[in-house]
Write a structure and sequence with these properties.
The complex is a heterodimer of chains A (348) and B (447). The longest helix of chain A is centred in the middle third of the chain and has 32 residues. The relative contact order of chain A is 0.16. Helices cover 73% and strands 1% of the residues of chain A. Chain A has a two-stranded antiparallel ribbon with strand order 1-2. Chain A contains 13 helices and 2 strands. In chain A, α1 packs antiparallel against α4. Chain A has one domain. With 348 residues, chain A is mostly helical. Chain B has one domain. Chain B has 14 helices and 8 strands. A two-stranded antiparallel ribbon of chain B has the order 1-2. Chain B has a two-stranded antiparallel sheet with strand order 3-6. A two-stranded antiparallel ribbon of chain B has the order 4-5. In chain B, β4 and β5 form a beta hairpin. In chain B, α2 crosses α5, α3 packs antiparallel against α4 and α7 runs antiparallel to α13. Chain B is globular. Classes of the chains: A mainly alpha (348), B mainly alpha (447). Chains A and B meet through α4, α5, α6 and α13 of A and α3, α4 and α14 of B.
Chain lengths: 348, 447
């Protein structure tokens, strides 16, 4: 019971992270497409300035929660994906520094330089996060102690001894890149006016078609790599709501984009919820499948932290979560509305 | 020691040492900024708001670097210390996850409001935003200290058959007495950094005859805060921390003091060089019986030397531990001297004209950074050879699947990245100092 509850909590926190930090990563990806001039790019940065740091905290909070709820998973996953995670860390640093320091100096070369770093790091992070999810779906070669170490790539096949990158995880990386690009473009449409709003919508509709194609490719590819994913859905048909969100969200986002940016953004959130939720709830109770010996897979049972700790955790987690929702509501309320070239920079 | 163990240790030591250069200033400045905001409202004096606004900019730059260098810390528990995480994650995962839920959300949500919301929020709203940032950063400190305190002095746990640590008492973990004193001592150290930096910058402006009205505020607030915190740092917090070490980590105390032989009426070493090979202290200048008095409140009390413990339980770098500890204590003493003299001159109304004292204040700003770093080295080297004191050795904790070469690769990567960050940081701080305090509230617009 407790492990299941914590599985749901961690999954939800990951989804919140993907939705929230997803839009500011997405802004980074479409930064140059929506912002052709330096001033337009300043508007993009203003649109995420006050909120991106809080969004990224969900990564740390989800990581911390995963650490305490499923210590063996945290230990195995983080040490096994050592090399890509180090690159993730460096990208997070470059990105944080570029958002924070870009507007400190009003100089064209300075700003353009950090615009470039911002886009580079954002795009790479989106790809890495997508590939990470792909790796979890495909599984990793766990040794008898439940640890592994994967090279960056081997022969790009999804065999028992795969690399971090193979054809499937490259695909999930690209799906993530385009999905977050779309999400970010819709967010910019929501936050901007006039010309830039128009451009954001154009980038969004362009990437929508690519996203549709990739989704239609990605879902069957996922099922071919891990057919067991459907078992939970067959046993509990109501769970099909989650994958249904993928297509409902995608279609609704397209539909609302023209006349209701807020609904389009919410639809894009629903799409991301479906895309992350579908494999995660399909894998349950497995949390890290073994690609070599299925019995070695880490599950919520063999990887859950000790029982008393998990029980106490529910209490403080619930309190912390209510507080976090309160802070975020306040933050987003203060900085609501459209930003423009004239509005002040609310970055830090 | 095998290569991988050494490299994983250096990896954490390097990244945490660099990281902590920034939070010690933001945690130290946060209460001072709240004090400035309070003075502005209380005395209805706009100059204090101007001061708060200027320090908020310094705070913001430091905070940004603190955030980006802080993320690798949480990751490294899993990437480089996987065995440790697997054994102890069920206990210290609690405090690390709580830091995210209670401190980071608070801090990150209100920082934007604090830095750029002065006009939107109004007088009291902005005061609360400053207070929330202060509360968030100091809460964050508590959860980290509680984590480290459990590694120093494990409480409220049981060991399961497979070697895993399981929490048995949440409150024991949160209210670990070690965490209490270590927290106060650590936060005092951060406040000293904040106070010295504020006073030093004020002194710099006064010496170069720029922004003199603001500079006097910085010197005054810095010296008053500095005087309070430098004294509290020795007594009670440092004193209590030392007693805990004497009581629970006697081998550590012996190594810190360079005491190789058990002795009744042990002397306190002021200066000297530990000679680990011959197990003696060379060229020592000592205060007779003082160590016995400080540790056990009796001049003739017996203090155990390293000879009382098997060598495999000695801290593994006694010389570095000894020097770190003595540098921390020596600097702490110098801080009191600086602040007492400055405080006296301030009280007599002569500080702002005493150029020599302003020079001393300006030149001394790096010292608290050194003292804080040395203090943490004392705590962490003193815990060796244990990761969880007495229970789990450091050699059992690192990631077995991450080779020495891979560890070296990322260590060098971090060194390169942090060199770049250092240049960027110094450049931006230099600009803010050269620009000086602004008269009008920040709209964050271009300037």
């Amino acid at each position: 019971m407790m492990p299941t509850l914590w599985f749901v909590i961690v999954a939800l926190m990951v989804v919140v992270y993907v939705i929230l930090d997803g839009f500011d990563l997405g802004v980074g990806i479409v930064h140059w497409g929506v912002g052709r001039t330096e001033d337009e790019r300043s508007v993009n940065i203003k649109a995420i300035g006050p909120v991106w740091d809080g969004n990224e905290v969900w990564l740390l909070a989800a990581g911390g929660t995963l650490y305490f709820a499923f210590p063996p998973l945290y230990a195995a996953g983080f040490s096994g994906f050592y090399l890509p995670l180090m690159m993730v860390l460096w990208c997070l640093m470059l990105r944080g520094v570029s958002v924070e320091f870009r507007n400190h100096i009003h100089d064209s070369v300075w700003r353009t330089f950090f615009d470039g770093v911002f886009t580079f790091a954002s795009a790479l992070l989106a790809i890495f996060f997508g590939a990470a999810l792909g790796n979890v779906i495909r599984g990793v070669p766990l040794n008898e102690e439940g640890f592994f170490f994967t090279p960056l790539f081997t022969d790009f096949r999804t065999g028992p001894e795969p690399g971090v990158l193979d054809w499937y995880t490259v695909l999930t990386g690209v799906v993530s890149l385009v999905a977050l690009a779309f999400h970010g473009a819709v967010y910019l449409a929501l936050k901007t006016d006039g010309q830039q709003n128009h451009k954001a919508k154009r980038v969004a509709s362009g990437s929508w078609w690519v996203l549709l194609a990739l989704t239609l490719l990605g879902v069957p590819a996922t099922l071919s790599v891990r057919p067991q994913l459907l078992d939970n859905y067959k046993n509990h048909p109501w769970l099909f709501v989650v994958p249904a969100l993928v297509f409902a969200g995608l279609i609704a986002a397209r539909h609302f984009l023209r006349f209701d940016e807020k609904k389009a953004f919410l639809a894009s959130c629903a799409y991301l919820l479906g895309m992350v939720g579908f494999p995660v709830f399909g894998l349950y109770p497995v949390i890290l499948p073994a690609s070599n010996v299925p019995e070695r897979s880490l599950t919520i049972h063999n990887a859950a932290g000790p029982a008393y700790g998990l029980q106490v955790g529910v209490i403080w987690w619930a309190i912390g979560c209510v507080l976090a929702i309160f802070y975020f509501r306040h933050l987003y309320a203060v900085f609501k509305g459209k930003v423009s070239a004239e509005s002040a920079v609310y970055g830090h | 020691m095998d290569d991988a163990l050494l490299i994983h240790r250096l990896h954490f030591a390097f990244t945490i040492t660099y990281h902590y250069l920034f939070p010690q200033l933001t945690m130290g400045l946060a209460p001072l900024i709240v004090a400035l905001k309070t003075l502005a409202i209380w005395k209805n004096d706009e100059r204090y708001n101007q001061a708060a606004r200027f320090w908020a900019k310094i705070f913001g730059i430091n905070f940004a670097i603190g955030v980006v260098t802080g993320i690798p810390m949480e990751f490294q528990f899993g990437t480089n210390w996987a065995q440790f995480s697997r054994f102890a994650g069920g206990v210290i995962g609690q405090t690390l996850a709580m830091e995210g839920m209670f401190a980071f959300f608070l801090e990150s949500s209100f920082l934007g409001l604090f830095l750029y919301g002065e006009k939107r929020l109004g007088k009291w709203g902005h005061w609360w935003a400053a207070f929330a940032v202060f509360a968030g950063s100091w809460l964050s400190g508590y959860f980290i200290i509680a984590t480290d305190a459990w590694m120093q002095h494990p409480v409220g746990y049981e060991r399961l058959a497979d070697g895993t640590f399981a929490l048995t008492s949440f409150w024991a973990l949160i209210f670990n007495k070690w965490a209490f004193w270590q927290y106060l001592h650590n936060m005092g150290g951060a406040a000293i950094t904040g106070a010295f930096v504020m006073a030093a910058l004020g002194a710099f402006y006064l010496l170069s005859r720029k922004h003199e009205e603001q500079a006097r505020i910085y010197v005054r607030v810095g010296v008053v805060a500095g005087l309070i915190f430098t004294v509290l740092q020795v007594f009670p917090t440092g004193d209590q921390q030392g007693k805990l070490v004497a009581q629970h980590q006697p081998a550590t105390l012996a190594a810190m003091e360079g005491l190789f032989e058990t002795k009744q009426g042990a002397e306190l070493v002021i200066i000297g060089q530990p000679n680990v090979k011959e197990k003696k202290l060379d060229n020592a200048i000592v205060v007779p019986n003082a160590l016995s008095m400080l540790s056990y409140q009796r001049w003739e009390a017996e203090v155990k030397g390293l000879d009382a413990f098997p060598p495999d339980q000695w801290p593994d770098n006694i010389a570095l531990l000894y020097y770190s500890y003595h540098i921390m204590v020596g600097l702490g003493t110098i801080f009191i001297a600086i602040m007492v003299v400055s405080g006296f001159l301030l009280w007599r109304g002569r500080l702002m004209q005493s150029r020599w004292m302003l020079w001393v204040l300006m030149m001394s700003f790096p010292l608290p950074y050194i003292a804080n770093t040395a203090g943490w080295m004392t705590a962490e080297l003193g815990r060796q050879p244990w990761l969880v004191y007495g229970l789990l050795r450091t050699a059992e904790g690192y990631s077995k699947t991450v080779s020495a070469g891979n560890g070296m690769f990322s260590l060098l990567g971090f060194m390169g990245m942090y060199t770049v960050l250092s240049f960027l940081f110094l450049f931006l701080i230099h600009r803010e100092i050269a620009h000086g305090p602004d008269a009008a509230p920040a709209t964050g617009g271009t300037r």
